[in-house]
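Researcher: Please predict.
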Amino acid sequence: MLAHADEMAKLYPDGASYPVIFAGDFNTDPTESRFADESTVTSILEKNFKWVFEGLPLAQRTTLPASGQFPDANFDHILYLGLKLKSVEVPADYDHCSDHRPIVAVFDVE
């Protein structure tokens, strides 16, 4: 994904911004110590991408509610570049659709 984003950047004039979004179930949470050795999200963030959940507590970004022995988790992510995040939420009223909750993010193009 990063290689594709790098190739796309070559199509734009130097300094021009272009929107890129990586979204989905990453099966990891960059804020949890149990995933310290998993670097997918952090390697994307190191490329100047932003994370829609930056600074939010787990209670506001739980995309996989607790089940049995497993605690609440934030395994689903949206990472973006060239956009301005206006709002993000993880609505709990869709728990009947999937074991993961959706992420609703609203952006402005920079």
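Model: The mean pLDDT is 91.
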